[in-house]
Amino acid sequence: MQIPHKSVILGVVLGVIPIALGVVALATPQWFKTTSSTAPTFGLFNINNTYMHTDTKGCYNTPKEQTVKGLEIGGVGAIFVGVILSFLLHMLIKNRWIRFIPQILLILGPSAILIGLILLLECAKWPGLGYSFIIMSVACITGYILAIYFALVTALGAGHHHHSRTSSTVIVRESVRF
After folding, report:
1. CA 21 to chain CA mean position, Å
2. Model-level pTM?
3. Which of 25, 42, 87, 130 could form a disulfide with 30 if both were Cys (CB 3.0 to 4.6 A apart)?
4. Which H or E run includes 33?
C-alpha cells in the first residue's frame, strides 16, 4: 500500500469518530440536564412539551421538531456518506478536483448538526446540557476537523507525485532535446 493511501485510510478511521458519536448521541436520552431526579429524561425522539419554555412550546410542534430531528440525522448521514465517497474517490479517481466533491458533504454534515443544536437550545428551559447534547456537539466539532483533514489530503494530492519544475530542470530538459 502506498503512503498516500494510508493518509486516506487514516481519514476513514478518523471519520468513524464523528459518525459513532453522532449515532450514540441520537440514541441516548439525556439531551438536557435536569435539576430534580423526578423530572424525566428525554431524547431527541421522545420529547415532552411540558418541559419546554411555555412561550416556545411551538418548537416541538410538528414542523420545528421534525426540522431538528432531520438536521441531526441528516448531519450524521452526510458525514457518513462524505467519508465513504472520499475514500472511494481517493482510491479510484486521479483527478484532484473531482476528489473535492465529498467536501461538500463533509462540511454540510457538521453544519446541519450545529444548526439543529442551536434550534434545540432555543426551546429548552433546563439549566444545563445533558451528555447527549455534549456528545453531539463533539461529533460536530470532530466532523469539521475531519473535513479539514480530507481537504488537506486532497489538496496535497494524495496518490500523486508531482515533479517540481524549477528553472534548472527546465534548462536541463531543454538542453537534452538538442
Report:
1. 10
2. 0.76
3. 130
4. strand 32-33
- The CA-CA-CA angle for residues 51, 54, 55, to 5°, reads 140
52: left (phi over 0), alpha (psi -120 to 50) or beta: beta
Q: How many CB atoms lie within 10 A of CB 19?
A: 20
Phi and psi torsions of 157, nearest 5°: 75, 55
36: left (phi over 0), alpha (psi -120 to 50) or beta: beta
d(CA 68, CA 114): 10
Query: C-alpha angle with apex 140: 11 to 132, nearest 5 degrees?
Result: 120
Averaged over successive runs of 10 residues, the pLDDT of the chain (178 residues) comes to 71 93 89 64 61 51 76 94 91 83 93 91 73 92 94 73 52 54
HSE-up (13 A, CA, CB side) for residue 60:
20
Residues in the chain, total:
178
Q: Is 35 helix (H, G, I), strand (E, B) or coil?
A: coil
C-beta atoms surrounding 162 within 10 Å: 7
What local confidence, expressed as pLDDT, does residue 2 receive?
A: 46
Task: Give the single-character DSSP code of 101.
Answer: T
Q: Rounded to an integer, what is the distance from CA 101 to the centroid of its chain? A: 15
What cell does 77 get?
Answer: 448521514
